[in-house]
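As the work plan foresaw, the team has encoded backbone shapes as discrete tokens. One protein thus recorded appears below exactly as we store it.

:::
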Amino acid sequence: MEYNVEELSPVTRKITVEVPAEEVNAALSATIALYRMQADVKGFRKGKVPSSIIESKFHKQVYGEATTDLINYQINEIMSGLSMQPMSRIDVDAEELVRDEDFKYAIEFEVAPKLDLPQYKGLKIEEVDVVVSDEEIAEVEGRILENNAEVKVIEDVRPPKDGEVASVSFGAYRDGQIVEGIQAENFDLVLGQNQALPEFEDMIKTLSAGESGETDITFPADFINENLAGQTVTMKAKLHAVKERIKPEMTDAVAQKAGFKDVETMRTGIRESYASQRKQMNKSAAQNELLNNIIGGIEEFPLPPAMVEDRIDRLLKDLEYRLDRQGKGFQSLGKTPEELREGFRPEAEASVKSEIFLLAVAAEEGLEISPEEIEATLSQLAMQSRQPLHELKKYYEDNNLIVPLKDRLLCDKASEMIYDAAEVKLIASPTDGGAAKKAPVEKADSAGKGEAKSGGVQFQDKAEAVEWAVANLGLKESTAKGYSLAKLQERADKFEAEQA
């Protein structure tokens, strides 16, 4: 076998391969030998069928498989010899093998461009120091007390007020018919907490226990159920009882219900949980800023088109999943498929640029991912997704996902190395502090409001999901970015359920 490498562009390579007739005949003979061992041909014992009969009877299958096997073997051999890693699918331009004739074919694929790496060690970056205020601890305590509140019926006959619980049966009607999915019996609605549309709560606040009422309500244009968005229905409801939530005092008994030994242990646990999450978030934000600063200073370089298009495909799948959870489709956005793709292009290009840079750093530093690290990562993924390891491993192997997984781990390792080599200066947290992330000790509120709102974490975009995963699951940012939005949402849902 002889081959010639042609550089069609900074990111595209074409390799022309010439195979002598002797190798062609050897490839055909190897495939025929396999068929001889398995083929059942009348008049011959298994494994004793003459090669000429096998070649004649199974000509199409033999020549097709021999061609594919030979090309695949030679591609691996060529890539290994060139130390070249395709960044796209390999396109093969080949006819079929012909006995006793030389064989010529060509392959074309994309590669990462060569980078002149800038200085990436010893750079200065600021990381926000971790601060957990007493007010934040008190806020979590308040939610724990709220979850342990005792609900009692108010004996006074009067309309309910904000903060009280209205036990109601209700239904939405259109043209005299009940609207499926917008109905409930003896539903406990906490007023004043945006669990239902304001018009519905206002109507409930006019009723006393035992009374019924109705009002016309127009659903918002962005209502989760597209069939009802912008539609007007008649909401009918009956108020059965008005209840109040009596919160207990914080005691060791309440702390034990939340999974802690006592109040002091609980407060320490909440503070440590916030601090750990915030430390990971602050470090991740600083790492991201450092990486953006470095890449921003690199002269523009060409990106493999297939990598960018593949990244856009992933972003579109994430968007489709998010819309599907809202009962919507692409058409609800009022954009053409082409407009959606172009809208995601800048984000996709930035992601590909970051990956190419980090892989170049990994190569420069001689970073490697061992089989043990691959195995450990797959084991972790199997535990998190509750799948048997062997099934997940087979899925990754069958779908050619091992190499992308290895690249993702290499990016993580390169990013960590760059940050470890940086001069990190801790700075004070902004005075406003921002809204704290929900601590994992908080129990989820079991009350819902039908289709209007669902519980748990609901990500608005991939960036928000990645930030959450870094803070709550301890993932590296580049690892989190490698997951689809759908997978991150699935893991968030599972995390919330386990903490509830």
In short: The mean pLDDT is 86.
